[in-house]
Amino acid sequence: MTDSPPRARARATRRRGSDRGFNRVFRWIAVGSGVLILAVLAAVALFLLWQAWPALTAGSDELATAVPRYPEDTSFVAYVGPLVFGTLLAAILALAIATPLAIGIALFISHYAPRRLSQVLGYLVDLLAAVPSVIYGLWGFFVLAPFVVPIWSWLNEYLGWFPLFAGEASPTGRVLATVAIVLAVMILPIITAVSREVFLQTPKLHEEAALALGATRWELVRTAVLPFGRSGIISAAMLGLGRALGETMAVLMILSPGFLYSFHILDSAQHQTIAAYIALDFPEASGLAVNTLIATGLVLFVITLAVNMGARAIVARRKEFSGAN
Amino acid sequence: MAQRIDVKDLNIYYGDFLAVQDITMTIEPKSVTALIGPSGCGKSTFLRTLNRMHEVIPNARVEGTVEMEGVDLYGSDVDPVAVRRNVGMVFQRPNPFPTMSIRDNVLAGVKLNNKRISKADADDMVESSLHGANLWNEVKDRLEKPGSGLSGGQQQRLCIARAIAVKPQVLLMDEPCSALDPISTIAIEDLIGELKSEYTIVIVTHNMQQAARVSDRTAFFNIAGTGKPGKLIEMDETSTIFSSPSEKSTEDYVSGRFG
Q1: Whole-model pTM?
Q2: CATH class belonging to B5-254
Q3: Would an 8 Å CB–CB cutoff place B153 in contact with chain A?
Q4: SS3 of A107, please?
Q5: Identity of the residue in A206, A216, A230 whose CB atom sits nearest the CB atom of B95
Q6: Domain boundaries, chain B
Q7: CB B29 within 8 A of CB B52
Q8: What is the ipTM score, two decimals?
Q9: What pLDDT does residue A34 have?
Q10: Looking at the complex, does the CB of residue A223 fall below 8 Å from at least one CB of chain B?
């Protein structure tokens, strides 16, 4: 009694099985790429934690002597607080300006414009994404800031009762409101591009359902396109928010910085963002000051992570209604 | 409420391509008219000209007239949106709005018509429309659940409920059962039988038994070859079409010899 025939057959089956040759290579490439992402993320987080640790554990006296511009008798949290505030305020303002505009442009491209015009418009928007942020900084500094000064002082004079426009409008225009506009322009392309792709993928079936009920163009958009694109819009906005939170150069060049919890976005010397702050102070920092800057970087990292997880949660919450089933 | 449709000398084009040629027919109110014929013969295209849905495709246009109670749907002062509010449509694949609950799906068309309705009226309308579509008993306890959670047959009846909620004059059905199992198909066919007392119904079907079961009159479309326009071969009482049609090709088709 020999068992070689069945075993040979089993081997032959295995050889003809699916996990051979290129399949196997491809599987390893895919798994490897996935693991690599996790590894990079973990490495960044570990680096930040490791380098930030000395600053996080140091006493406030120690920090005050080592770090320039560190106020006396302040904990690290109180020190980083205004920076977090400035970062969030700038990013949220930029998002508030960019998102409606981006959705409008995306809808125009996907559902209103004649095909040829929509293609040209699509290219133009993508081109905006290719402009380096230094250029945006220069443009903001030399063109936009002087241009908006009269607008900001008008807002300040007549709508000063609104908290954001209160205070004293800066004569230079180098204020957070101007930064928010530049950031909005910078994140506009990514939000537009992602929303446009999502809108174009609205199932024909749903569009026809709306049209057959007698929907006008806008009603078609409202009943079929926007509900379908909802999670895509949120993802797009979060991508934009991520960029706005981390944007360094344009903020650095335009904003006249300050370290206050202030809603006066027309006032100069009120706000600073984490990324611009790090870039500004890093060249002259040494020792514990470097660790302190990295600790603020860690805070930015955590904020960005939290924003992304928040967006996921929003998208997942109404999964039942998403149309994925 | 049901209306009569008169089609005269209708040619349908996609760009320069003549898709359907020279259709003249009368569709009686409160009856079911079935459109049959081989694939690509233009039945669906023709159906879509009855509510101007074919205009969704770029460069689509028609010559000739489609009159509904004497009003030409293609008159220069007629808004396609208004036409579609008058002529409901049910599609081949069930297409409830996935982000809406069952209740909101039924009310979708009503809300589009910009009518502000009280909650009580809306409740009545949801109940009567779902009753009308024979779906009420199956969904009455889960009106707030998404419509996409229903079975295919239930979704299709939900789409019918949505279409009849706006009280159209005419109901067009483009192969409404082709994606459904036999049980759901019978449910829809029974429903068509009930709905014809109130609506003018035009149904495209590939299933000749279905045409024989549900329709009062049947129109047979055919196409001479690829690239040629589809034509109406003949239209008559359904019993006549299936027993003693006047055209040879109709007889061949309904007896299963081609198509």
Answers
A1: 0.81
A2: alpha beta
A3: no
A4: helix
A5: A206
A6: 5-254
A7: no
A8: 0.87
A9: 95
A10: yes
